[in-house]
Design goal:
The protein is an all-alpha fold. The protein has one domain (about 1-290). The protein has 15 helices and no strands. It has helices at about 1-25, 30-40, 45-55, 65-75, 80-90, 95-105, 105-130, 135-140, 155-190, 195-200, 210-215, 225-235, 240-250, 255-260, 265-290. It starts with a helix and ends with a helix.
Length: about 290
């Protein structure tokens, strides 16, 4: 009970402040501007730029299909598109702010570096596989459009209004997941024995990292909902690499996002996407369990 009633206002207040500030920042990064920045860039550089844009853009799995279609129509390569689609939900301002508030700058910086690396490398690998034939036919046959930046000029008042709108939309949408995540974390904190958690998700169990990924993929949550669970798991002795793998799989490989992407991708492409990203997450988990 103490865990729940202490963490709930802390997380909600932190989330509200961060979403308001980033809502103002995000008013500079419309989908049109993101497409214009990425179209025509060389491979590698474009992957890194796409992953970086994912941090500061307010897109999640629910916007995956319209964003994907817009990027394809603008001529953005598939690998670059996926660097963006991986980074946007996984390495976003909410995740980084909550990680910083709960664990400090070292863990937040570690997550930022790992998430960007996975987004860049996974996108580059997908680009190298040349899987355009695995797009649905109606997506391949869409006419190409010229990507152009949105030149709309917003006043400071408009940007403040955008911040409040982001708070209403994002906090209003995710608060049930936050309460659920904190409740699960409180249950783990109060009732799960430390020895059990250490044996189940500790460094000594080689199978803990792939199991954490398998458990995480079917779950539907976001950074705000899963971080309280991460906090409780670490407090009970779970290994950092295993917990990071669990968190990344929940956010980057959620089942609802895969269902949404099925509208534009064939199953072979979806399976390749899951395999590439999951491989990166597994490497991260094992690497940090080995060195930390």
């Amino acid at each position: 009970m103490q865990f729940f009633f202490y963490d709930t206002p802390k997380v909600l207040l932190l989330l509200t402040g961060v979403v308001f500030v980033m809502g103002m920042v995000n008013s500079y990064f419309t989908p049109e501007r993101a497409r214009a920045l990425l179209a025509g860039r060389t491979e590698g550089v474009a992957n890194a730029m796409a992953a970086g844009l994912g941090i500061v853009t307010p897109f999640c799995s629910c916007s995956a299909v319209p964003l994907f279609i817009g990027f394809v129509q603008a001529g953005v390569p598939l690998g670059v598109t996926f660097s963006f689609l991986i980074s946007a939900p996984m390495v976003n301002e909410v995740a980084l702010a909550l990680l910083f508030g709960m664990f400090g700058w070292k863990i937040a910086s570690l997550y930022l570096a790992l998430g960007l690396a996975i987004a860049i490398v996974s996108g580059w690998v997908i680009g190298r596989l040349k899987m355009e034939a695995c797009l649905e036919d109606w997506v391949r046959n869409m006419p190409r459009v010229q990507a152009s930046a949105d030149d709309t000029v917003l006043t400071l008042g408009d940007r403040i209004a955008s911040g409040f709108a982001s708070v209403r939309e994002i906090v209003g949408r995710v608060w049930p997941y936050i309460l659920a995540g904190i409740a699960i974390g409180a249950a783990i904190h109060g009732w799960v024995p430390e020895n059990f958690m250490a044996s189940f998700m500790g460094k000594s169990a080689w199978w803990s990292v792939p199991l954490a990924v398998l458990i995480g993929v079917p779950m539907y949550s976001n950074a705000a909902g899963v971080i309280p669970v991460v906090q409780a798991l670490l407090a009970k002795g779970a290994a950092l690499g295993t917990v990071l793998a669990f968190m990344m799989s929940v956010i980057a490989l959620s089942l609802p996002e895969l269902v949404i992407l099925r509208k534009v991708l064939k199953w072979r492409f979806i399976a390749t996407f899951v395999a590439v990203v999951a491989a990166g997450i597994l490497i991260v988990g094992y690497l940090f369990n080995a060195v930390l």
